[in-house]
């Protein structure tokens, strides 16, 4: 039996309603019944009350649609079971006593719902209440008409909206009944599922193979009309729309180019929001390609089947009046709060802003300054290319084994950049240009970390080229890496080597410091720190997810940084 997060199997329908009402100040439970009503019942005096309901397990339907401008109340059954006659009758009495000018029942086309709501309607009429019932059958699955008729599925939510908007505007029961009946005739829905669902405490209602999907299944896990191999989202959507609008299908919806529709892309409960967005885009594209205007699109979970991983598409043919009713304000919590307007795949994109002013390059003169920069950079590049396999090997124990590739990519990019044009000799411009190269070409988090380091160091070197400035630049770069990367010295990362070298470079601030000695000390400190990472517990980066007993090697990032520093400072 699949796992469920319920308190008790028997109480799950009641508990779900209790939770909904607890979190929504606009709702009230009717004492002794599984009935949810608007908290401001006095506001319906003189207006038509609209009631609906059905089995639980379709959340947010039906209680999520109770509110001003939508349903006055709903009657819920147990999971996938019709509500009782007694509860429906009590709900009718409650709204009648609040002064409703008639009651409209909106019922999905299932035998149990028709019987129980129908029986309650007859008893309420015997008490003198003006009650009407509209049955919604919007399912386009079955190609041959059956005796039971079409099932009521997600299209019912649009019917709730139309009826509620009319009632809120003060329309009479006769007018609402007539317009709602007309709306039911221009709505069609179809479901597609990748998985079954299971009632709490029970096994799944059916099985689907790992590579199968089912077309046209109901919202209680009833069988559909066609099993097929899993299709890509765009093809699946095309298949659904073709089936829904195929004139040889007895339950089809007639769509002609130029028609206007409201589209509902409904999550059947267990599809990820990512997949739902993909399906929605495919549905809009497919409809637009057929010359259909999508006046409005609603995407989300509107009428579910517990945890079924699937989607249903609903189309309602609309004129201006129906669009106005769909747009009318409601306080129902499950109705999306959307900006009114059409859906289209052809939205104009906002043009990307022009790049900021280019950093002034210093005159890339020839001369020994440029030659020296090229020599140092070439030494760095060959060092990194030579140690590619060693870095990958070190990285396999802790990461994804690509540290060498990442550094080799950077080396290759720097080489190509130097061949294309002589590098700038001014320190700030040089580091800034190198930052651009590694950010664009290196990839991985190391690319961004080097980019941060070089950008901050360059900033610190603007207009300075004395030796202490390089020590300050090193500190600025490390500070930026720590601020965004989250690592600290001792966390077994590339920062360990950098930090050790920076400490040694602080001696450059002392008057009379011996430059060569300080640089040699910085290289030695960096190499010692890299070796010391062998015995550290990883506290940042991907290696922090690996048990420390498995990390017998030094950190590859720290080893790479030490090697780069040796190439630069020697």
TrEMBL record:
Give the InterPro entries listed for this entry: DhaK_ATP (IPR012734), DhaK_dom (IPR004006), DhaL_dom (IPR004007), DhaL_dom_sf (IPR036117), Dihydroxyacetone_Kinase (IPR050861)
User: What is the name listed in the Swiss-Prot or TrEMBL entry for this protein?
Assistant: Triokinase/FMN cyclase
Q: Which residues form the DhaL domain?
A: 371-570
Q: Which PANTHER family match?
A: TRIOKINASE/FMN CYCLASE, TRIOKINASE_FMN CYCLASE
Q: Which organism is it from?
A: Illadopsis cleaveri (blackcap illadopsis)
Q: Which GO terms describe its molecular function?
A: ATP binding; FAD-AMP lyase (cyclizing) activity; glycerone kinase activity; metal ion binding; triokinase activity
- Keyword Ribosomal protein on entry: no
Could you mention a single GO BP entry for this protein? Answer: glycerol catabolic process
**Cofactor(s) needed by this chain:** Co(2+); Mn(2+); Mg(2+)
